Amino acid sequence: MPQRKKALALVGGRRRPRVEEENIFPFNSLPVECQLHVLAFLPEVDKCSAALVCSSWSRLVRSGKLWRVADYSRRGASHAGQEGLLVSNREFERWKAWVNHYTHHLISRGASLLTLRASFDLGDHYNKWGELLSHLLDSVHCRDLSHLDLNWTFTLLEPLDLRLYSGSNSSSGSLSSSSSHQESITKMDQVNNFQVLLAKLAHSCPRVTKMRMHFDWSEISVSLLTQFRHLRVLELKYFWVFKGVNPSTLQTMTNSLPSLRSLTLHVLVPLRNLGVSYTLESESLEFLDVSQSRGLVFSRLRLPALRELRAKKVVRGITLDRRTRLRIQSRWPCLYHVLQEGAPKLQALNNERLLPSWREQSYRELTAILQQACYCLQHLDSWLW
């Protein structure tokens, strides 16, 4: 066959492309930033597989800009959303090995983190999860971290035989007799290590804008939290059922976060503090959700930008005689009057759109909503709290 016919082959009257033309892939012609943006959509396992395609892709995958998320909750899809789940010791050891390998992987890639998600018991002296997270923050670029989702009260997985990891050989009788004391010590250890980690985060990641975590409401923790001046979205869950929240502490926190737009609070007011009310002030807050709180009553609000409030009155099964109930409730103003004075731009209450004239005059639908949210004498007439 002539040389000209070797280069061209007709298929249905059309020219077949050369072998060299078939091998051309336009992805490599894109700017590096575009290539990184495309690869960023891949799951982490697929990114590692992509590194095996060719040398240029291998160099791309090694870029720290491709590793923006440190997510310690990805291991085991069947355990997603579960914390403190008991598993076999062998499974726990495999998961623990994965945690350490994953941390080393992020450090070796020079990760440039934007998101950190983790669930570790920071009071665990054996596994020292707090030191692992501190090492990660010291070893990667996290100055631009913007999203923090941290549960420091439970480890995602726990071994069935905790004795192997606690270093304790006490008898079962002595363990039972000192369980309450031991729990208090554990809680203090958790708080101390949490404060150490929060201080490191405040120093290393000052640009966090979205934060979700458990909170102990101590003065030290509040002081550290208020250093995140760029916070826009904040969700604080309760740390311990016996840990109360000082009203002045809550007010200090909201006053000290100038960029805060959304606040979700899970506050459990202990029975000993029943009757305490709270003041909340913020020039920037637009969304407030306290529907998961128990016994949280506002006596005053100063939220000029607030547009939506979610609040729910929760019965905790406390039996009060009429005299005690009236004595407590007489201290509290009606939520309607609190909102009239302190939330002039409010547009929605408990997912219900308010009429433009709600401040001038209440109406039937609004009264029904207040029955679900207000603790005053008018909207709560029951012996069962």
Automatic annotation (TrEMBL):
Pfam families to which the protein is assigned, alphabetical: F-box-like
GO terms for biological process, alphabetical: protein polyubiquitination; SCF-dependent proteasomal ubiquitin-dependent protein catabolic process
InterPro entries: F-box-like_dom_sf (IPR036047), F-box_dom (IPR001810), FBXO4 (IPR039588), LRR_dom_sf (IPR032675)
UniProt-listed SMART domains: FBOX (SM00256)
Domain of life: Eukaryota
Gene Ontology CC annotations of this record: SCF ubiquitin ligase complex
Domain F-box: 24-70
Designated name of the protein: F-box domain-containing protein
